[in-house]
Design a protein that fits this description.
The complex is a heterodimer of chains A (127) and B (423).
Chain A lengths: L10 H6 L1 H18 L17 H8 L3 H20 L19 H18 L7
Helix pairs in contact in A: 3-5
Chain B lengths: L1 H17 L4 E3 L2 E6 L5 E8 L11 H7 L10 H11 L2 E6 L4 E8 L3 H14 L4 H21 L1 H14 L17 H11 L5 E6 L3 H11 L19 E6 L5 E10 L4 H10 L23 E8 L3 E10 L2 H17 L6 H16 L4 H13 L5 H9 L3 H13 L3 E6 L13
Parallel strand pairs in B: 2-6, 7-11
Antiparallel strand pairs in B: 1-2, 3-5, 3-6, 4-5, 8-10, 8-11, 9-10
Helix pairs in contact in B: 1-11, 1-13, 2-7, 4-8, 9-11, 9-14, 11-13
Classes of the chains: A mainly alpha (127), B alpha+beta (423).
Chain lengths: 127, 423
């Protein structure tokens, strides 16, 4: 999981601790805005490298609508890159729109892979 | 001679009568018989055939979803664990029933019953499984099955004969779109207590009931889909096909419970010889040109039956000649009596009795008993014994009076039309 497409993350432990979350959240929001993917219309999950079998499989599980929207965002953002510009402010991704639409699929694919590995390397005990 | 055979058939029917009593467990009908086989088999017979489907192809997709991921175990987990136990999981779909079967060694029943019942109660029906595994398999199965001209002809014959209901095909037609929501809704409506029968062979009834009581808790109680009672229509169609034997199907159907007279008619016309390499005494067999074949097809359903002759041959001329012979035999089939009729009755009885020799036939006979859809074996045999010459010729005449179902698959330009065969 550490070397998977999603990489290591401290987020689960931060989310568990209420007061730590309150401290970290403003910094995280500031960092997200600074990174600027929302200014070219991306969602965070659009940044996950897709050139891997597991992410490709996860991408094939998107609904047709989700896949179409993703293509549109990628195209619009690469156009921004060509123009060396960002989108007008009304087209920026709003924080509430920036949902993890791909991560659950990637996690499912990873879980299936892990299960397959477990079955492949299983040792049978006679009782 | 005939009397001796009749008594043997009666004791066979007594054996069949003893084998199982139907009990309710968790609202589900359970029937089991243990004849000391080295392996056990459990079949979930669900009234979820294509005649009940809400949308074309849903029943086939539901069959494809069998043994995929459930709340208890994943698709891979089911496959690997079943392999470790050395069992075989299989499914089959007819126009009336979906059968989910597991065959396994004695002692492994708790795992396999749990696999079957967890599919029925808690299958997940995920969209990616439909796209990645179920839909491609359904498409391949349909393509393979319908590439066979005999299957194609029978499929079309059902459509012509019964239109809606029994006419709907158990194969997905190319281009039919079935979504996961459709399958989920169909599964929810068919997996209800009154709609399922659980049949065991090689397993004791008590054991099966205990296992089912533990695992079949969460069945939904939605109302099961119903199908309008079948009516017979008939008609003619011609479909182009290449590279396969030229095929003609001449069929007649009847609504209502399948009659014993029809089984006798099918046995009388069946040109399959009882001795290998012999010609057989059927009225059709003597006139068949070299290389052609005629099979008599009798498909009984709960409220209708389709009877017909499937003529196949390498060339259209040969098929035409064989078709003419078949139609002539069909027209004079009602006139037989005496020893001829007794012979046909004996053949029909053997066919009915030997069908429960094997596990599949036995499971379906038990299922028919449990779901109350049609008569059990002993009933069938005694009905066959009671067939009289007058009733037989009346039944045959009324069958032949109805509009024929005539299907041609092959070279449609030169294969005969129905009137050219004398129908």
């Amino acid at each position: 999981m550490v070397l998977g497409p999603l990489g290591p993350s401290l987020a689960p432990s931060v989310l568990k601790n209420r007061s730590l979350y309150r401290w970290v959240k403003p910094v995280a929001d500031w960092y997200v805005n600074l990174s600027g993917w929302r200014r070219v219309g991306y969602k965070y999950d659009d940044l996950i490298p897709e050139e891997r079998p597991d992410v490709e499989r996860a991408l094939s599980r998107l609904t047709p609508r989700e896949a179409y929207d993703r293509q549109f965002r990628l195209k619009r953002a690469s156009h921004c890159s060509v123009l060396h510009d960002i989108l007008p402010k009304d087209q920026w991704t709003k924080p509430e729109e920036d949902v993890r639409y791909l991560t659950p699929h990637i996690e499912n694919v990873e879980k299936e892979e892990q299960e397959r590995r477990a079955w492949d390397n299983m040792a049978i005990e006679r009782k | 001679m005939l009397a001796a055979r009749a008594s043997a058939a009666r004791s066979a029917s007594r054996l069949a009568r003893n084998y199982a009593s139907v009990v309710d467990t968790a609202g589900v009908k359970v029937a089991a018989v243990d004849n000391g086989e080295p392996t056990s088999a459990v079949t979930f017979l669900v009234k979820a055939g294509s005649r009940f489907e809400s949308k074309p192809g849903v029943a086939h997709a539901l069959k494809g979803f069998a043994y995929k991921s459930t709340n208890k175990r994943s698709f891979l987990g089911t496959v690997r664990e079943a392999e470790l136990y050395g069992g075989v999981l299989s499914t089959s779909l007819s126009r009336e029933h979906l059968a989910l079967s597991a065959e396994f060694l004695r002692g492994d029943e708790s795992f396999f019953v749990d696999v079957l019942s967890s599919f029925v109660t808690s299958a997940k029906y995920t969209r990616h499984e439909l796209d990645e595994y179920v839909a491609p398999v359904c498409e391949a199965e349909s393509t393979t099955a319908l590439a066979n001209p005999a299957t194609r002809a029978l499929d079309l014959a059902h459509l012509l004969a019964f239109r809606a209901g029994l006419g709907s095909s158990p194969y997905t037609s190319p281009g039919a779109h079935v979504s996961v929501e459709d399958v989920k809704a169909f599964a929810k409506s068919v997996f209800t207590p009154g709609n399922i029968a659980v049949l065991g062979t090689g397993i004791s009834s008590e054991k099966l009931q205990t296992l089912l009581a533990q695992s079949l808790g969460g069945l939904s109680s939605a109302s099961a889909p119903t199908s309008a009672p079948s009516a017979y229509f008939g008609g003619e169609t011609r479909v182009e096909a290449h590279g396969a034997p030229e095929t003609v199907f001449i069929g007649f159907g009847a609504a209502g419970v399948p009659s014993a007279e029809l089984a006798v008619l099918a046995a009388h016309l069946n040109p399959k010889p009882s001795v290998k390499w012999a010609q057989g005494l059927s009225p059709i067999a003597v006139k068949l040109p070299q290389g052609t074949s005629v099979q008599s097809v009798l498909l009984p359903y709960s409220d209708a039956s389709l009877f017909g002759l499937l003529v196949q041959g390498p060339t259209t001329a040969a098929v035409k000649e064989a078709g003419k012979a078949a139609v002539t035999a069909l027209k004079t089939a009602g006139e037989i009596q005496g020893e001829e009729l007794k012979k046909a009755v004996a053949k029909a009885k053997f066919a009915a009795a030997s069908s429960v020799d094997y596990r599949d036939g036995l499971a379906f006979a038990l299922g028919a008993k449990a779901l109350g859809s049609f008569a059990s074996l002993d009933g069938t045999l005694s009905n066959l014994e009671k067939v009289e010459a007058s009733a037989y010729s009346k039944a045959t005449a009324s069958l032949l009076k109805s509009k024929p179902t005539y299907v041609v698959v092959g070279d449609i330009k030169s294969l005969p039309y129905a009137d050219e065969l004398g129908l």
